[in-house]
Specification:
The complex is a heterodimer of chains A (258) and B (249). With 258 residues, chain A is mainly alpha-helical. Chain A is built from 11 helices and no strands. The chains are: A mainly alpha (258), B alpha/beta (249).
Chain lengths: 258, 249
């Protein structure tokens, strides 16, 4: 376990010593504050648009951080040859995968806390309310989604040698699922066989990332999600994360490193 | 005495990426043993299979056939690497870490208790003369400093066996001398060193035995003086004769 933590700590240090996170945070803050300074037709509902924009930026930034960080971990280790002194220690390849995953996921979690704190401050400044439980549920589900995304990007980095191609594919897959994932079954209904069965299979096989998108709940203050549903979503994310990590380990365990 | 590094009938083949090309044999039926306390020089021209053999020993590469063990444990098991230190050739360590943080990271991988890790980090940074640069990021280190921090990470667990892949490659004469001094010191401490090098003069001064590999095959093995006596020349001339080099003309 100490080896996994040691690897995770280095990943976290890397993220916070690079400029990516700070640039994305400053951009999110600047755009949100700029939008917040505008008053459209003295509309009181404008705060909802502001919350929507802020959350959208947080979602995009979090996806960028998660995918780019996870996609470069193992390729960078190989390119700089640091994988050699690392694996020459009594550490297994499974521990390397788990350490990298944990590091990326915890780093994303820390970034999310900063982003949601900012969101909370912006929201509270306008609405004079701080629904902590709703924010906690939204942040947690967002973090669960990032666990799946990080595991997917980490697995992809073992298949696609170039981090840029892996990151592009991961972005396309994640955005595709978020935007059209929930409609695939309806589209399948209108298709002939065997396309229908094939699309249904895809619908049931993909991780439904859109389940973790509860932005509308906190934008419109629709109250809390039932805790059993929240727990089920957590278990769903854990299952897909474990599946992607297992696949990554199966690819990595016998991969020659010379 | 039981060898601490043992290779039996090792065969490593690579599949060629070009269509119609057969497998490329990198190492052919290699048998090798290194005893405790020995400094063993692993020599050979570029592409002879030295690094491939080291990569099998460290578990980076699975052999096509044959076995390799460290301290009697199959190299495929991570625990076989508990008592070894490894310095790879041309590694660019995590540039966002400082030298001290890098060593702390590797100490944690070995599960060293904090006080012992700190004591070893202090001693090693002094040994490799990086004490004054310990809090500088590695990205600011020169090539020689990077190689020395690499040597320090290889020694962090106080290993009984040190595997060095061309440790003096790319270093200036002063850097080479310092690495040689460290190897001498380790030898006096009773450590086993297995290293590859193209610097035959250096091999002659520090090694007890050498093995010469060419085209994946072990062509000669024995004490340096014995090889020199057998070929009635210095190690460089003996090496060239063993690998079958014929001067032009």
């Amino acid at each position: 376990m100490s080896a996994i933590w040691a690897i995770a700590t280095v990943v976290i240090k890397e993220l916070y010593r690079r400029k990516d996170f700070y640039v994305l945070f400053v951009l999110t803050a600047l755009i949100t504050l700029l939008m917040g300074s505008l008053h459209f037709f003295s509309d009181e509902q404008v705060v909802r648009y502001l919350k929507e924009i802020c959350l959208l930026l947080i979602w995009v930034s979090a996806l960028v951080i998660a995918i780019t960080t996870a996609a470069r971990q193992i390729p960078a280790e190989r390119e700089n040859r640091t994988i050699f002194p690392l694996l020459a220690k009594p550490v297994s390849r499974a521990q390397v995968i788990l350490g990298k995953f944990l590091g990326c996921w915890l780093a994303c979690g820390l970034a999310l806390v900063v982003f949601y704190l900012f969101f909370g401050v912006v929201s509270a400044a306008r609405e004079h309310a701080w629904p902590l439980a709703s924010y906690f549920q939204a942040l947690w589900l967002h973090w669960c989604l990032l666990a799946i995304v990080v595991a997917l990007a980490l697995g992809g980095s073992l298949v696609f040698a170039a981090p840029s191609s892996n990151a592009t594919i991961c972005f396309a897959v994640c955005l595709g699922i978020l935007l059209v994932g929930r409609h695939l079954n309806k589209v399948a209904l209108g298709l002939p066989e065997p396309s229908q069965t094939l699309l249904y299979a895809v619908y049931f096989a993909i991780p439904h990332l859109e389940l973790f998108d509860v932005r509308q709940l906190i934008i419109h203050d629709w109250g809390l999600i039932a805790w059993p549903v929240w727990a089920a979503a957590t278990a769903y994310a854990a299952a897909y994360t474990a599946f992607f990590l297992l696949a990554a380990w199966l690819v990595f365990r016998r991969k020659p490193l010379s | 005495m039981e060898p601490i590094l043992k290779i039996e009938n090792l065969q490593v083949e690579y599949r060629s990426r070009e269509l119609g090309q057969g497998a490329k044999v990198a190492v052919k039926g290699l048998n090798l043993s290194v005893l405790a306390g020995e400094v063993f020089g692993f020599l050979g021209p570029n592409g002879a299979g030295k690094t491939t053999t080291m990569h099998v020993l460290l578990g980076f590469l699975a052999p096509t056939s044959g076995t390799a063990s460290l301290f009697g444990v199959d190299v495929r098991q991570p625990i076989a690497r508990q008592r070894i230190g490894y310095l790879p050739e041309m590694t660019y360590y995590y540039k966002f870490l400082t030298g001290e943080e890098l060593l702390r990271f590797y100490a944690r991988i070995f599960g060293l208790p904090r006080p012992e890790a700190e004591r070893r980090i202090d001693a090693l940074l002094k040994l490799v003369e990086l004490d004054s640069a310990r809090r500088q990021p590695i990205k600011s280190y020169s090539k020689g400093m990077q190689q020395r921090v690499g040597l320090a990470q290889a020694l962090i667990n106080n290993p009984d066996l040190l595997i060095l892949d061309e440790p003096t490659s790319g270093l200036d004469p002063l850097g080479r001398m310092k690495v040689r001094e460290i190897i001498h010191r380790l030898k006096h401490e009773g450590k086993t060193v297995f290293f590859s090098s193209h610097e035959l003069g250096e091999v002659e001064t520090v090694c007890d035995r050498v093995g010469i590999l060419s085209a994946g095959e072990l062509k000669a093995i024995g004490p340096v003086e014995e090889l020199v006596r057998q070929y009635r020349s210095n190690l460089e001339q003996a090496f060239l004769k063993i690998i079958g080099y014929e001067p032009p003309g």
